[in-house]
Amino acid sequence: MFPTNCWYAAAFDHEVTQKPFPLVILNEPLVFFRRENGSVAALRDRCAHRMVPLSLGRVSGDNIQCRYHGFTYDSGGKCVWAPGQAAPPNSNIRAYPVIERRHLIWVWIGDEALADSSQIVDEVFAGLGEPGWNFKGERLFVEAGYQLLIDNLMDMLHLGYLHRGTIGSEAIRQGKFETRLERPSGAIQVSRWIPNHLPSPTSARGQKTSEENSAPVLDPEDAWHVATFGPPCNVRIDAGAQIEAAFHLIRERLGAPEVLL
């Protein structure tokens, strides 16, 4: 069972073009495409005639045509053409509410009458798409339940062990940090602040090296790890440290100190 009366981030904006783009969201087969004016449409990815995926067909103007027998649907799911006859009145397919915001394509799977754009938790994506931010959207396919991914991303304690050689520090393993729980604008945010501790291996690689013996000169740092969850399944990670070299190392590699997931 999935929560359906909510917005799901289905695709990155650059993925959806005037070619059919298929996805399965909450076990529902969907096909996305752009209309001639650039707006995005989302339909059930099944032709009403023989249940062939419409994503195998082609987009023409604001319509999509089935590859099997040519049944053609407008972007609202209405059948506008059928071979050798008028379009049957019972051959329409479902169209889904869609919103394009902050480089993401959002789709509403549940009751269309309840679709409200204000329910998108913008707190998770604050800054995305604004001047001064770099953006690169990629997909990572994971064979696991999405609830486990949310649990992993909101959990800092595993960093000291699973990521011991990179971002896991001794301070995390010893529990030497302050934790705050907040609820900004419909989100759930867990902030952990790690003051005055020896840096993690990743931060250490950004610090200076002694000229005498090339050994790292490890200054204490103040670090933070802020995980923000926006229902139903969006998580933002904001992590960094107040050592200038380490901060610039992170920024140089990521384009910004935040990683959005």
- Order the strands across the largest sheet as they lie in space: 11-12-13-14-15
Query: What is the overall shape?
Result: elongated
Say which CATH homologous superfamily of the largest domain is assigned. Naphthalene 1,2-dioxygenase Alpha Subunit, Chain A, domain 1
| Number of structurally distinct domains | 2
Give the end-to-end Cα distance, rounded to a whole number of Å: 23 Å
- What percentage of residues falls in helices of 4 or more residues? 10-25%
Helix count, DSSP H or I runs of 4 or more residues: 5
Low-pLDDT stretches are 244-261
Fraction in beta strands: 25-35%
Mean pLDDT: 86
Tell me, what is the CATH class of the largest domain?
Answer: Alpha Beta
Question: So what's the oligomer here?
Answer: single chain
Q: Please state the second-level CATH architecture of the largest domain.
A: Alpha-Beta Complex
Largest sheet entry: 5 strands, antiparallel
- What structural category do the secondary elements indicate? alpha+beta
What is the radius of gyration? 24 Å
* Strand segment count: 15
The topology string of helices and strands comes to EEEEEEEEEEHHHEEHEEHE
